[in-house]
Amino acid sequence: MEEKTDPQDPVWKDLDRQGQLFMMGFDGPTVTPQIKTLIENHHIGSILLVAKNLKSAEETTKLCYELQKIAYDAGHPVPLLIGTDQENGGVNSLFDEIYIRQYPSAMGIAATGSTDLAFEVAKATAQEIAACGLNLIMGPCLDVLANARNQQMGVRTAGDDPHQVSAYGIAFMKGYKEAGVATLGKHFPSYGNLEFLGSALDVPIITESLEQLSLSALVPFRNAINQGLDSIMVGGVAMSSVGLNVMHACLSEQVVDGLLRHDLNFDGVVVSECLEMEALSHNIGVGGGTVMAVNAGCDIVLLCRAFSAQQEAIKGLKVGLENGTISMARVRNSLRRVLKMKAGYTSWEQALNPPGISLLSQLQPSHTALSTKAYNSSITLVRDKTHLIPLSNLVEPEEEICLLTPLVKPLAASAASRAISESANAHSPEPAWERTSSVMSGERVFRELGRSLARQRNGRVLHTSYTANGVRPMHETLINRASAVIIVTADANRNIYQQGFTKHVAMICNMQFTAGGEKKEKPLIVVSVSSPYDFAFDSSIGTYICTYDFTETALYSLVKVLYGELTPTGVLPGTISESQKLHQTRQHWLVEAFNEERDANALDNLIKLIVDDMPPSQRSELSGASSNTFLLHNQEVIEAHFVVRNSSTHALYGFCSTYFFKTTGTGTIGALFVDPSRRKLSIGHSLHNRAIRTLLQREEAKRFSLGTRLPNIYLGIPMPHTVEKRRLRAWFANLGWNTALSRTIYSMVARNLSSWSTPEGMAKSLQSAGGAAEFDLVYGWDYAGPILDHVKTSNRQGLLEVYKLALSDPSACGIIRAKRPDDKAIVGTVVLYNQQSRLAEFVPAMRDLDEMTGGISSPVISPSVADYSTLLQGLILLGMKQIKKQGANAVYLDYMDGDGNVDVLKSIGFDVVSDFEEVSCDASTFTMLQPSVYGEGTSLLGKGAAVEKKFTAGRSYHVS
Q1: How far apart are CA 644 and CA 626, in angstroms?
Q2: Averaging pLDDT over each range in 34-48, 145-159, 445-459, 866-880, which range is the top one?
Q3: How many domains does the chain have?
Q4: Which end of the chain, N or C, is less packed with Cβ atoms under 10 Å?
Q5: What is the domain range of residue 92?
């Protein structure tokens, strides 16, 4: 890359100022004489703070201020860059039980399936450290786990799919930047496939060729660079392949200047791996390594803690400059990059006034909620062959559960780890609560899990640890006593004894017998609390859950999953998820056409089961519906409804309704739901398969949609604003629906009409609308021609049929028209109806209201209207006045677009009852997908079935 020689302030010509090219650390939570000397005398520009430096949020804020004040008093022209590792999960340098929240690791966030959530978590993380005075986060990790089962990186990265790692890495990066913190991608070119040769003096080696790296490991770095990554850490690993022989990547001009700068076009700050790493310092020496790093193209050289090594590095740089080994042009280029990055993220005003606890206390409530949401969304149920989850269905309160956990090193981010160290010198070998609670014995790092399990069920939990010594008599005794066994593993692929222990316990559980001598398998649940690869491919472990972390928050979410308070929605990351999909069991259910005489009562019973399964706080769209609701008996609508049923008991296990609207050439799936006790069995997939096949048989089909106005039950995918929405959207997306192309549709209600009046200010809006249009209310088929011609300007399915129903029922329905004053052309219409109308039969939610209610439905406004919102207000307000005049006390408003209209309608007096995502696509989309989606044994069909296993329903479509 061509070196730039931008003019710089003369102050930077002083060789002592070249300390800007170093990042250095120190020991302890307070400023040491050594770091003070480095800042004052050598003007080092960046500080790395690690867990040993950071005791609490308050003390970290104080420490950062003191470091910046020393730099300011020493005449530094710009503030220090102060960075830390805050990756979440198991890698957090800053922990504070009150003010700093725990969030899932990168892989845990990837398991949520949401890059939006990744952005929010990253932003919250950066806000917290920024409040304490830190301005650089050592992240995101952009490593791709090319050899995922045996790598040290583990859950620190999003997985083994380079594009998924890229997507989440960029989301993290953008979140950090949004919070005003500089970003550092690591570890270039990748730590995802290292060969470890044993000795600390042996350097881990990347054996992939540049071509292989370019196709996989470099993808996240390339994409992050294009999106504005501020800096990159280059590792100290060796590289050995054809055309590439590098002892340490960060010291290689071929890697830094060639691969990173020239090939990937990166002009941000390059930070070296710590030159104190034993292999590097032993082979080359810190002074020589510094010269090599700078000449290779590194802008900042990292030295973590040893004062002697730091002095040697500074001396090496000065000697290199004095004897011409390092050119001043090279230094000026590095200074330019470092100062540019600092200018974007630091100022003396910020550096000397960190907000600290005052800001953190404001952030705490929302960040606590975000932490809970993230962990709840990450827990992944990989397999549950015999339906052991929730445990509360299997284990009675008086029965015992055996919890077996490995001896592992506590996480830095864990409050438990602090408690361990604080109680290390206590007289009792066990904390007081362990001597008195129902958890009989146990290894302390998982004591909170044992406590939560016991507290949640008010029962006994037999908790003990296991080691490489295998299954001991004590383990067998506890297993035999317990009614269910939970085994925790942590990186079992690298700790092989955990695999052996788990398989041995599985054998014991499989060989249990009843008092009568009959074989009875004991429920066994295996929980991986770190790498999901422990038993991902071992189908002999029938129930397998992954948490990705063993922080307290993660384990609390696990407990909620185990006891059925939380439905796990996480998905295994990367290609491991694709591999799992090939092993999923899919049942092909017999789907039959709905027969009204045979199935009507059974459908009523199925609807009741689903409504009863809803939490009291959630209103089901099916409340008030019956089998008749789905039957339109309309000559212009072709109906085809399907059931999965038990031919012996005649009970329905699932139902799907489809409609083909001849007037618009639109085929719709109007409802799809499954018996709550029979989800995860592919019933929903089988029904969807049959529905699409049927709709595709209509040669005149132009569009397909999820959700329909007629009947008015599901206007689209319901939006309960919980993890359910993501699960439903993903389920349909994996069946071929483009959920990204959706629009929000609302149903709303206004109550207390007897005391309602037009809000202040709305009267003027109505007058304004009146100036642009004339309104009238008409009844009956005599007015059909112009009204239907107007409605045809909208291609929305069901609208024309709604208007025809209203025109055919003049005693109970009317149409409000808005006409242009000049030519009397209709520019807007809306349907009015009451509870006795034929139309109301297809709006069960309206009939379910416990008071006299009128309905306003299906507004259609001409595209030529300049002020859409004002005309809409006029139509709705006139409709409300008319319904109030008829003695109704409530107004039900359905099929309302959400494009800016909801707030307007709320100001009139409406509240949202339900909201949906209406999803539409060209029929040709499914025509093209048909051979691969519905062909027997094809990969995409397997994909849908696998997703179906994970994305079960709680509300709405109740897919399974």
Answers
A1: 17
A2: 34-48
A3: 4
A4: N
A5: 17-280+289-359
